[in-house]
Design goal:
This protein is α/β, with parallel strands linked by helices and 348 residues long. The protein contains 13 helices and 17 strands. It has two domains: 258 residues, Alpha-Beta Complex (Spore Coat Polysaccharide Biosynthesis Protein SpsA, Chain A); 78 residues, no CATH class. Strand 2, helix 2 and strand 3 form a beta-alpha-beta unit. The radius of gyration is 21 Å and the shape is globular.
C-alpha cells in the first residue's frame, strides 16, 4: 500500500451481546453470517486480502475464540492469530500487535487496523481509504485515523473535530468527542466533524514511542513481557481504549475523511441499513413469511417464522429460542440479558 512494509491488523474480540440469542461467548458477532452467507470475520478478511497477504495479516482475539478464528481463516499462519489471555482494552491489543510487527518487519512498517464486524457498502473506496491512510502515516510519521463523513447526528458514535491542514491529504485532529447528546451531535455535524470509526494507520515504531510517552500502564508491562503474551496482558491492570490512552494525548494524530458506506452493525435493527429490504422495508433471513408487515427485521436460523400485520419488530429465532422486541429496545438488550437465567442467556 505504501513504499514500506504494510501489515493489516483485525480486531476480533468481544461477544456482541446485542445480537443475542444468535451470539454467545463461544460464537460471537464476528463469527455470525449477518451480512452474507459467511461469518463477518471472513467477509472482513476477504475485503482486506488485496491490501496485504496472509503473511502480513494479524487477527487479535480472545484466547477462547482463537481456534474459531483459525477455522474461519485457515490461510493465516497459526501464530498470526494473537490470542489475548484476558481482555485489556484496545490500547494493549494494538500495542501487542505493533510490537510483534516491529520485531518482524522493523519500526518503519505501517500497521493498518480495522474491526472484524463492520459492514462496508463501497469496498473499492474503503480499500482506497486504507491505502491513503497508510501513505499518510508514512509521510507524516504520525498516527492517522479515517473519520467517517456523517450522514446524520448519531448519538451512539464518537466524533472527531478536524483541525489544521498539512502538506498532504491528512489534517490534524483538533479533539476527540465521546458519544454526545443530540444537541451537541447536531452542532458537531454542522461544524464538519467526522465519526470516529476506529480505523487507524501508523508506523509501528511511532505508535510504540507515543505509547511509552502517554500510556505507561500499557507501555511498562509491554517492555517487561518479552514474547510472553500471558505476562503482558496479565500485568495490564485495567482495560484502556487506545483513543483514551494514546490518541487523545498525542500531538501526532491526523485524520482523513472517508465515505464508503461504513456501518458498525451495532444492533439487530442496524441490519435494515446494511441488508437488502423488500418492498415493505423488511429485512428477512431464513424461512421467513411476511404478510401485511412493514419495517421489520427477522432472522430465522432454523424454524419457520411468520409475521402478520405488524410493524417495526425485531424477531430472532435460534436453537429453540425466539426473541421478539422492537427496533428501539433492540438497541440495548443488556437489561434483558441481566435478568435472564444463565442457562438461557449463556447457552452454548
Amino acid at each position: 500500500m505504501s513504499g514500506v512494509p504494510t501489515w493489516v491488523v483485525v480486531l476480533a474480540g468481544g461477544v456482541g451481546s446485542r445480537f443475542w440469542p444468535l451470539s454467545t461467548r463461544e460464537h460471537p458477532k464476528q463469527f455470525l453470517p449477518l451480512l452474507s452467507d459467511q461469518p463477518m470475520l471472513r467477509d472482513t478478511l476477504d475485503r482486506l486480502a488485496p491490501l496485504a497477504g496472509a503473511e502480513c495479516t494479524l487477527v487479535l482475539t480472545n484466547a477462547e475464540l482463537a481456534n474459531g478464528v483459525r477455522a474461519i481463516a485457515p490461510e493465516l499462519p497459526p501464530d498470526h492469530v494473537l490470542a489475548e489471555p484476558r481482555p485489556a482494552g484496545t490500547a494493549a491489543a494494538l500495542a501487542w500487535a505493533a510490537s510483534r510487527i516491529a520485531k518482524t518487519a522493523g519500526p518503519d512498517a505501517i500497521m493498518v487496523s480495522v474491526h472484524a464486524d463492520w459492514a462496508i457498502a463501497d469496498v473499492p473506496r474503503f480499500r482506497d481509504a486504507l491505502r491513503l491512510a497508510a501513505a499518510e502515516a508514512a509521510r507524516t510519521r504520525g498516527l492517522v485515523t479515517v473519520g467517517i463523513v456523517p450522514t446524520h447526528a448519531d448519538t451512539g458514535l464518537g466524533y472527531i473535530e478536524v483541525g489544521d491542514a498539512t502538506d498532504g491529504a491528512a489534517r490534524r485532529v483538533a479533539r476527540f468527542v465521546e458519544k454526545p447528546k443530540r444537541e451537541r451531535a447536531e452542532r458537531l455535524l454542522a461544524a464538519g466533524a467526522l465519526w470516529n470509526s476506529g480505523i487507524f494507520a501508523w508506523p509501528v515504531g511511532v505508535f510504540l514511542d507515543e505509547l511509552r510517552t502517554h500510556c505507561a500502564p500499557v507501555a511498562e508491562p509491554l517492555a517487561g513481557a518479552g514474547d510472553d503474551a500471558a505476562r503482558f496482558f496479565g500485568a495490564v491492570q485495567e482495560p484502556i481504549a487506545v483513543d483514551v490512552g494514546v490518541l487523545e494525548r498525542s500531538a501526532r494524530v491526523f485524520v482523513l475523511p472517508g465515505s464508503f458506506g461504513w456501518n458498525d452493525v451495532g444492533t439487530w435493527s442496524a441490519l435494515r441499513s446494511v441488508r437488502a429490504r423488500d418492498g415493505e422495508g423488511n429485512v428477512a433471513h431464513g424461512r421467513v413469511h411476511l404478510r401485511d408487515s412493514w419495517d421489520n427485521v427477522v432472522y430465522a436460523a432454523g424454524s419457520h417464522v411468520v409475521l402478520y400485520g405488524v410493524r417495526g419488530l425485531v424477531v430472532v429465532e435460534h436453537d429453540g429460542v425466539v426473541l421478539v422486541t422492537t427496533e428501539e429496545q433492540a438497541r440495548n438488550l443488556k437489561p434483558l440479558l441481566e435478568q435472564l437465567p444463565s442457562s438461557l442467556r449463556d447457552r452454548r
